[in-house]
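Comment thread on ticket #2218

A.B. wrote:
> Attaching the input chain for the structure job we discussed in standup.
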Amino acid sequence: MPKTKAIGLYADRKEAVRRVINIGLARSGLTGRDLDRRNIININTLTKRKAEGETIRLGEIWALDKVLHFTDDELLQMLGR
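C.D. wrote:
> Ran it. Output below, let me know if you need it in another format.
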């Protein structure tokens, strides 16, 4: 079965999670490997969470926020607001 892009509200939310994490990483100058070395989040887990945005957990958002310093708007985007 060919891969297709998801459509609708959930696709937008999944994309928002990926976008916000990537923006935070770029702004801080860190990579996924840096987060893994600091024991913030495992690199494989981060990759999966970015691919499947609906699987991210609140504790992981909190841990990422401590390092990446998300803005209030970015946090709301991750939650679909």
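A.B. wrote:
> Thanks. Noting for the ticket: The chain has a mean pLDDT of 88.
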